[in-house]
């Protein structure tokens, strides 16, 4: 089955660090994706973000046992926050342009974050969710993938 992206529809291509908002200026048969917005997040690895030593838990039992508490994965947390920020921005763009369709292309974790973040009216516009990271591909390759491989 080939994906048909209507004229004026938006295509979100993103992961936890980069997001592309693309609009189809072509038609269903020959899409012509144009960049509306690009978001890049500066998200260094966790070891560069957190400098504190892991905390400890003291248990009030005979022999006083201590347990280390793992350090939060700041990198992962920032990727979740980024997905939610771009979801809000995408919703605003879709509402202001009165778009009638959306295609979402992202890796599984980002897809899950976006599903949680989108409002019901935006979820109703989604034509397809594609589990793929295409953020590093040129737009021509994204068009080809969406029209041929899906």
The CATH architecture: 2-Layer Sandwich
Q: Based on DSSP secondary structure assignment, what is the total number of beta strands?
A: 7
Q: Which overall shape is indicated by the principal axes computed on the Cα atoms?
A: elongated
Low-confidence stretches: none
* CATH overall fold name: Nucleotidyltransferase, domain 5
Strand content: 15-25%
Q: Topology of this protein?
A:
Elements (H helix, E strand, L loop, with lengths): L9 E5 L3 E7 L8 E8 L5 H4 L6 E3 L7 E3 L5 H24 L4 E5 L1 H10 L2 H4 L2 E6 L7 H11 L1
Parallel strand pairs: 1-6, 6-7
Antiparallel strand pairs: 1-2, 2-3, 4-5
Helix pairs in contact: 2-3
Description:
The strands form 2 sheets. Strands 3-2-1-6-7 form a 5-stranded mixed sheet, sandwiched between helices. It has a two-stranded antiparallel sheet with strand order 4-5. Strand 1 and strand 2 form a beta hairpin. The model has no long low-confidence stretch (mean pLDDT 84). It is α/β, with parallel strands linked by helices. It contains 5 helices and 7 strands; from the N terminus they run E-E-E-H-E-E-H-E-H-H-E-H. It has one domain: Nucleotidyltransferase, domain 5 (2-Layer Sandwich). Helix 2 packs across helix 3.
